[in-house]
C-alpha cells in the first residue's frame, strides 16, 4: 500500500513562500548579469551567496547582506566600505522581500554611482521572478499532494489505514471527502503529457470540489461531485484530451472506504470493457454488475460452468454468433424485435437461432431458469474468450 501522506510535507507547503533556492537564484543572477553588463549576486537571508554571474563567488559569505536583511533597506559600498566588510566588493546591495519578509539580497558589483540606477530595476525583476518560481513550486507541490491523496484512496486498506487521516489531508487541500462523489478512472491509450490531460479533465470536471490527478502512467482519476449524469460529462473527455482514451465510472461514495470501492468498481468496469466486443469508450459499473460477478469466480470454475450449460453448443463453429444472440436476447428483455435490431438481423433469424439452441440443448428457451443459467455461461465464455 502507498504510504499515508506525510504531514511534514504539508507543513513545508504552507511555508513555501519563504524558500529561496540556489538553482533559481543562480539562474536569475547569471541571466541578469548578462543583460546589464555588471555582476549580479544573490544571497540567502544569512548572507551566503547562492547565485552569481561570477561562479567563483557562489558559496562565499557576503557580510553586508546580513545588515541589509535585518534592516530591509538598501546599502551602497564604495571601495573603502567594501574593504571593511567580508566578501564585499564595491557596489550596491538591496533586500529581496516576499510577503513582507526578507528572504535574501541582490547585489550589483561596480561603482555605486554607475550601478545604483540599476538597483531598483534589478531588485523588482528578481522579486517578480522569485514570486513566479514560488507559485510554480506551490502548484507543483499541491499537484503532488493531490496525486498522493488519490493513490491512497486507490490503495486504501480497511485493515491498516485510518480513513480519518485521509479525510484530514483532503481537508487541508480544500476538499471534503464526506460529500457524495463518483469515482471516474480514465485510461489514456496513447502517450500524452500528464499535465495536459489533467488540465483537459479539469475543463470537464470543473466543480471546485472535483479532485483530478494522475495516479500512474496513462491512468487518471477523478473524484467527481456528481450534479449532472456523470456519463454525459465523461462523453466529453475524448474530445478534450484529443487522444484515444476510455473512462470507467464507479458507484456513488460518501466516505474514504466507499471512495476506494468506487475506484475499484471504475477500474473493474474498464477491465471488463476490454473483454467485451463493441464496448463503449465510457462504461459504468452498474451496466456490468453481472459481468463483474461472473469474473470474480475462478477461471476453472467458469470453464466447468460453460461446459455444463453450453455443452455441444460451445463446440460449434458458429458458437460465437449463438452466444452473442443469447446475450443480446436476454439483455433486451427477451424481446425478439429489440434483439434483432441490436444484432442488426431479421427477427426470423433470431427465432431460427433460438430454435437451434433448443434442439442442441434439449431445453426450451421459455424455461427462465435454464435461460438465465445459459446467459451467465455465455457471459463467462465471452469474457474468457477475449482474455489477453
Automatic annotation (TrEMBL):
Domain Putative sugar diacid recognition, chain residue ranges per copy: 20-151
Domain (CdaR GGDEF-like): residue spans on this chain: 161-270
PucR C-terminal helix-turn-helix domain boundaries: 322-379
Pfam (any one): HTH_30
Residue stretches spanning the membrane: none
InterPro entries in alphabetical order: CdaR-like_regulators, CdaR_GGDEF, Diacid_rec, PucR_C-HTH_dom, PucR_C-HTH_sf
Protein family: Belongs to the CdaR family.
Designated name of the protein: Carbohydrate diacid regulator
Source organism of this protein record: Kibdelosporangium banguiense
Taxon lineage: Bacteria, Bacillati, Actinomycetota, Actinomycetes, Pseudonocardiales
Amino acid at each position: 500500500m502507498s504510504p499515508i501522506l506525510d504531514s511534514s510535507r504539508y507543513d513545508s507547503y504552507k511555508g513555501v513562500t519563504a524558500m529561496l533556492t540556489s538553482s533559481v537564484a543562480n539562474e536569475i543572477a547569471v541571466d541578469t548579469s548578462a543583460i546589464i553588463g555588471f555582476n549580479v549576486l544573490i544571497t540567502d537571508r544569512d548572507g551566503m551567496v547562492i547565485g552569481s554571474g561570477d561562479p567563483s563567488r557562489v558559496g562565499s559569505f557576503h557580510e553586508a547582506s546580513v545588515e541589509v536583511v535585518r534592516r530591509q533597506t538598501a546599502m551602497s559600498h564604495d571601495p573603502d566600505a567594501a574593504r571593511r566588510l567580508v566578501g564585499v566588493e564595491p557596489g550596491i546591495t538591496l533586500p529581496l522581500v516576499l510577503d513582507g519578509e526578507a528572504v535574501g539580497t541582490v547585489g550589483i558589483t561596480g561603482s555605486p554611482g554607475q550601478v545604483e540606477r540599476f538597483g531598483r530595476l534589478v531588485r523588482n525583476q528578481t522579486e517578480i521572478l522569485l514570486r513566479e518560481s514560488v507559485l510554480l513550486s506551490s502548484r507543483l507541490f499541491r499537484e503532488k499532494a493531490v496525486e498522493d491523496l488519490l493513490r491512497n484512496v486507490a490503495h486504501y486498506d480497511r485493515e491498516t489505514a485510518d480513513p480519518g487521516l485521509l479525510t484530514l489531508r483532503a481537508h487541508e487541500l480544500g476538499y471534503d471527502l464526506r460529500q457524495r462523489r463518483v469515482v471516474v478512472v480514465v485510461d489514456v491509450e496513447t502517450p500524452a503529457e500528464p499535465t495536459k490531460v489533467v488540465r483537459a479533465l479539469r475543463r470537464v470536471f470543473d466543480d471546485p470540489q472535483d479532485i483530478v490527478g494522475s495516479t500512474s502512467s496513462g491512468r487518471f482519476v477523478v473524484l467527481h461531485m456528481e450534479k449532472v449524469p456523470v456519463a454525459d460529462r465523461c462523453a466529453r473527455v475524448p474530445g478534450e484530451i484529443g487522444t484515444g482514451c476510455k473512462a470507467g465510472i464507479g458507484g456513488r461514495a460518501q466516505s474514504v472506504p466507499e471512495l476506494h470501492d468506487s475506484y475499484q468498481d471504475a477500474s473493474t468496469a474498464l477491465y471488463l470493457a476490454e473483454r467485451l466486443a463493441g464496448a463503449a469508450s465510457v462504461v459504468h459499473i452498474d451496466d456490468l454488475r453481472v459481468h463483474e460477478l461472473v469474473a470474480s469466480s475462478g477461471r476453472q470454475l467458469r470453464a466447468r460452468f460453460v461446459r455444463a450449460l453450453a455443452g455441444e453448443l460451445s463446440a460449434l463453429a458458429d458458437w460465437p454468433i449463438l452466444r452473442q444472440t443469447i446475450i443480446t436476447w436476454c439483455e433486451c428483455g427477451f424481446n425478439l424485435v429489440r434483439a434483432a435490431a441490436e444484432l442488426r438481423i431479421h427477427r426470423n433469424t433470431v427465432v431460427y437461432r433460438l430454435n437451434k439452441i433448443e434442439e442442441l440443448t434439449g431445453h426450451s428457451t421459455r424455461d427462465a431458469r435454464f435461460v438465465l443459467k445459459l446467459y451467465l455461461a455465455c457471459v463467462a465464455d465471452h469474457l474468457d474468450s477475449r482474455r489477453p
